[in-house]
Specification:
By secondary structure, this protein is mainly beta. The protein has no helices and 11 strands.
Length: 122
C-alpha cells in the first residue's frame, strides 16, 4: 500500500511560480515512474510531466520550458516546479507513481494523490 500526499498548490498571479510536492509513504522499495497530471473544470485529465527511474523526463508541449519535474529518491518525493504560470494552467494537479515493491518487483498498479488545486489569475 502506497500513500501519496501532495502539497504546494494555491493562488498565484500570471507570471508567478509554484512548487508542487508529492511525498510517497508506505510499503514499497522505491518509486519507479512518477508523473504529474492535471484536470481543469470540464476537461479530461492530461499528462503534464513524467520522470523515469533513471531521471529521464518528458513534458506536455504546453508546459515545456516553464515546468520542471524532479525527484528525491531518498525522500521518496516528486516535485513539479512551475514557472511563468498562465491562467490556462489553472487546474487540479495530481501526482501519479508506479513503484518497485519490497520484493524488488515492478508493480503495474497506479497510485494517485488526492490532488492539489492551482489557480492562476490574470
Amino acid at each position: 500500500q502506497v500513500q501519496l500526499v501532495e502539497s504546494g498548490g494555491g493562488l498565484v498571479q500570471a507570471g508567478g511560480s509554484l512548487r508542487l510536492s508529492c511525498a510517497a509513504s508506505g510499503s514499497f522499495s522505491r518509486i519507479y515512474l512518477a508523473g504529474w497530471y492535471r484536470q481543469a473544470p470540464g476537461k479530461q485529465r492530461e499528462l503534464v510531466a513524467i520522470i523515469s527511474g533513471g531521471g529521464s523526463t518528458n513534458y506536455a508541449e504546453s508546459v515545456k520550458g516553464r515546468f520542471t519535474i524532479s525527484r528525491d529518491n531518498v525522500k521518496n518525493t516528486v516535485y513539479l516546479q512551475m514557472n511563468s504560470l498562465k491562467p490556462e494552467d489553472t487546474a487540479d494537479y495530481y501526482c501519479n507513481v508506479q513503484i518497485i515493491d519490497i520484493s524488488g518487483h515492478y508493480s503495474q498498479h497506479d497510485y494517485w494523490g488526492q490532488g492539489t488545486q492551482v489557480t492562476v489569475s490574470s
